[in-house]
Amino acid sequence: MRLESVMITAQEIIGYMESLFDEEQRQNLMRFFKTAPGQYGYGDEFLGIKVPLTREVIKAAKDTPLSEIPELLMSRWHEVRLCGLLILVAQFERQASKRLVNNAEAISKRDEIVMLYLRFAERANNWDLVDMSAPKILGHWLMLPTRIGGNAAGLHRDYKMHLLDELAGSSCLWKQRISMVSTWKTSQMGDPSWCLRYAEKHLNHTHDLMHKAVGWMLREMGKRVSMDLLRDFLSQHGPDMPRTMLRYAIEKMTDDERRMWMACRKQPVSL
User: Fold this and answer.
1) So what's the pLDDT on residue 194?
2) Is this prediction's pTM over 0.85?
3) Distances (CA, A) of 44 to 24, 26, 58, 67, 262
């Protein structure tokens, strides 16, 4: 099947992607994304398509109507859901260019994309789906004007924080990860407050995937905004942070400083 560089429907996207089925690569991806019983990705199904091929599909489908995206996000196939999410990313980024930041039509379009993303947030049900979409859609939106949560176009920070708090407080691991990884973009744009807020909320999380996400976002905040802010956070919370979270947060520090922070961490009590 030949891929046309035109606006296409969800069924055409799915049909084309199913034609790329690769059993050997499928098995590799199932192992990599931990789909065995008891693992975090249990039940996820793959076609065996590498990301560069999926990106080629997105180039051809970048103008797919938003009304078609839910069918992609509800697909059983991991790669099809990724395709749907990355089409949303591409469309959001087009509406978030510098010249369109305050454009009324672009604001409404961005808001529509964000609401769609939040409605299907649970379908971003593996770490790559979250990490490749959340910062570029939800994270970027946090820093842009919106009409949601008020009558006039403005930042509406309290309303945005309420939405992220709901994700953070969800029982769904992937929604929790979205709330944390979205702060990658806010830190890139110079605002550390989102990262610090959600790092603190997830400090006592029990899942290793969240330990990695929190540590990673703290590291990025330190690199992009202020290492002193990172050190202040570690001074307050470092002794209680899970080992993996702390290790990720301090990864870019000198050997001596890393050893110092690890030595400050409380040791588990033996019973």
Assistant:
1) 98
2) yes
3) 16, 11, 21, 24, 36
